[in-house]
Amino acid sequence: MTLGVIFAEQALLSEGWADDVRIEIGPEGDITAVETDAAAGDAWRAAGPVIAGMPNLHSHAFQRAMAGLTEQTGAAEGAGEDSFWTWRKLMYGFVGKLTPAEVEAIAAQLYVEMLKSGYTAVAEFHYLHHDPEGRPYGDLAEMSECVIAAARNTGIGMTLLPVLYGAGGFGGRPAAAGQRRFLNDPDRFLALIGLLRQRHGKSPQLRIGIAPHSLRAVTPEMLSAAVAGLRGMDATAPIHIHIAEQTKEVEDCLAWSGQRPVAWLLAHQPVDAHWCLVHATHMTEDETKGLAASGAVAGLCPTTEANLGDGFFPAETFFGAHGRFGIGSDSHISVSPLEELRWLEYGQRLVTRRRNVLRPGQGSEGHIGASLWRAALAGGALAAGRPLGAIAPGLRADLVVLDGEAPGLFGRERDFLLDALVFAGNQNPVRDVFVGGRQVVEEGHHIAEHAVLARFRGAMSSLLA
């Protein structure tokens, strides 16, 4: 169902909370007008407070099928002590089995879960390009089209970030066999980007950017070629990159270049507000302040970073320098924006042994949950490169209706409601969800959840056989 007008007794607008709000939606799914202290008239009436949907700025969709399968000591062959690097071996083994149909089924199930949790857009960091032997499919965009189809069929908005992956380590070391499905040179990679832009460039639900995987997976020449090629097509398209996630990565970068990863990137690329540096866990104070000053978004994924043993992002220093951030579910061991924000703050409490540590942005008057939510909306929208992140004319009508009667939210209003949303319990309080004005979740249920789940179960039965 696509609606023309939504009425909310309370709604969080770009300028703050407002009462009796009429939100008018145009035929393309954009908000055309917002009126406060208005009469409901014939509008669809929201059954609870309305907030903007959260962008998920970092996703590897296929990894949803791996969740819970790597939690055994020494699971990787010859692993010794478990780490990110042993987890990666298991991931490579898993990814070698996936068919295009299975990738689409897994992504669709993931996107249903995202929508039901309040994520209304996803930045898909997509690096599975070729067949199991590393040969390109007849359609160079075969695998990209699978995740696009999953997004279209479930209704989530998407920023597709095809990954450039060309090396197995710093300095252009040869890639390993487990990476062969990811590999492209810059020419073929930019041909893929051009093809996707030709097919989907006019869709209001889809933006095409790029994701150089990491400094260890692209040479400086590859990185520069990809950035220049993209900028020749789209001067403002988003660029995402993994960086400084692990201490070994920092040590290897120092051995290769004499600089730490974030310092190297800031010195060698025109990093600005169109970039998103994912994780950036291990930075010096100068790097942290330099990243904040660049205007780039820090892409933070606390549940995955905890699961992989990455470490703690220097959030207090970064926010103190007015840095921007957004959240992502990355490997999808959790698909909840509430849990990402909660553990972002809890991690800092554990490090500093204080409470109410993080205060990003302005306008929340000391409400930690509310300030984190607002800042993640703004940073996530910037990283997605799409008009998202608030309820205001000209932005997409990506709206979440909360269940104000849920035990954790009952009796809370305005910023106290957002604080409770982030910190009070594990019950999902999302009632209804609209993306581009189209209702995709009704009373907690996705409109296609049963068919999507059946296909996901079929894929998993095949993969786990």
Would you tell me which CATH topology of the largest domain applies? TIM Barrel
Strand order of the largest sheet: 5-15-16-17-18
Number of domains: 2
Strand content: 15-25%
The number of helical segments is: 14
CATH C-level name of the largest domain: Alpha Beta
Q: Structural class of the secondary structure composition?
A: alpha/beta
The main pleated sheet reads as: 5 strands, antiparallel
Average pLDDT taken over every residue? 95
Radius of gyration: 21 Å
Principal-axis shape equals globular
Let me know the number of strands. Answer: 18
The fourth-level CATH homologous superfamily of the largest domain is: Metal-dependent hydrolases
Q: Indicate the percent of residues in helices.
A: 25-40%
Residue ranges: pLDDT <50 for 5 or more in a row?
A: none
CATH architecture of the largest domain: Alpha-Beta Barrel
What is the terminal-to-terminal distance?
A: 39 Å
Q: Quick summary of this structure?
A:
The chain is an alpha/beta fold and 465 residues long.
